Amino acid sequence: MLLWPWIFLIVVWAWRGIQMNNHVAKGVIDYPQITNFFLTLFGNITSIIVSILFSQATIRFAREWITSNDHITVFDISVISAFTHQNWPWSRKDRKYLLVRNTGRWLPAVSVVGCIVAFALVVPGTTSLIAPVSFHRTVSLTGTELDFSSSAADCLDWFEANQVSNNCVWSTVSIPP
Asked: What is the mean pLDDT of residues 78-89?
């Protein structure tokens, strides 16, 4: 859950972005609000799918853990419930009980907070990774120039070596500055 957006980002970065065809790009430029709506909708659908899969995996783990463990406490069940529903099951009064170091209950509580934060980042992470960004369609142009003025020696030598016939009926055109 935490790694897939970064893997997606690395793949897209390796491809130097995913380019849209001109028709889709024009729609994205003309209708940015609709584009953002559908990207956020896709992010929410992704979040729902990830939540369902994570909850099913948590329930499966809990069943196997409970059947193989003889000592199950109410705290263990509340931790499993917190992971399954991605919420904070304890009240403010339980804070002292959770933060006592020798009970070992602070690590599951911190893990639940990390889980809740991770699920909160699924939608904005998905949306920001696939949101279209503007880019410049420019490439640096390099080349050499042949001077066609009558006084350049290399130009005169080239014309002497390559006699060009006027089959195309070339004409001289002056371009104003």
From this structure: 82
The domain tally of the chain equals: 1
For CA atoms 105, 108, 113, 114, the dihedral sign is: positive
Domain extent at residue 126: 4-130
Residue 114 lies in a domain: yes
Q: Which residues contact 39 (CB under 8 A, 6 or more apart)?
A: 126, 127, 130, 131
Q: Is the pTM of this model over 0.70?
A: no
Residues 151 and 147: their CA atoms lie apart, in Å, by: 9
Question: Tens digit of pLDDT for each residue in 60-81?
Answer: 988 888 888 888 887 788 888 8
- Which tokens in the block code for residue 70? 């003889």
In a domain, 170, yes or no: no
